[in-house]
Backbone:
C-alpha cells in the first residue's frame, strides 16, 4: 500500500525554484524530463519509503534526482513529508538536512 505524500511549503518553493531555473536555462524537454523523474521518484518513495538512505540527520532521508538534484523527506507513521528539493551544486553548508 502506498503512503500518502505531503509537500511542505519549503518543498514547493524549492521545487518551483528548480523548475524556474530549468525553464530559463534549458529546454522544455529538460523541464518535462525533470518532472517525470520527480513524479517517478515520489511514487517509488510512497511505495517503498525506506528505499533511500538516511541523511546526516537520522530520520530524514535523501533521494537523488539525477546528478544535480536531491530530495529530502521524512516518514511519519503512515505519511511521507517532502521537505526540500536541493540543487547539489550549491554549497552543502547551506543545506538544512
Residues:
Amino acid at each position: 500500500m502506498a503512503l500518502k505524500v505531503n509537500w511542505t511549503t519549503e518543498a514547493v518553493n524549492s521545487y518551483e525554484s528548480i523548475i524556474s531555473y530549468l525553464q530559463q536555462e534549458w529546454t522544455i524537454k529538460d523541464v518535462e524530463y525533470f518532472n517525470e523523474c520527480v513524479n517517478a521518484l515520489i511514487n517509488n518513495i510512497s511505495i517503498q519509503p525506506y528505499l533511500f538512505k538516511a541523511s546526516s540527520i537520522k530520520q530524514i532521508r535523501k533521494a537523488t534526482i539525477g546528478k544535480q538534484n536531491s530530495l529530502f523527506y521524512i516518514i511519519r507513521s503512515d505519511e511521507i513529508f517532502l521537505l526540500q528539493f536541493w540543487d547539489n551544486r550549491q554549497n552543502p553548508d547551506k543545506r538544512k538536512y
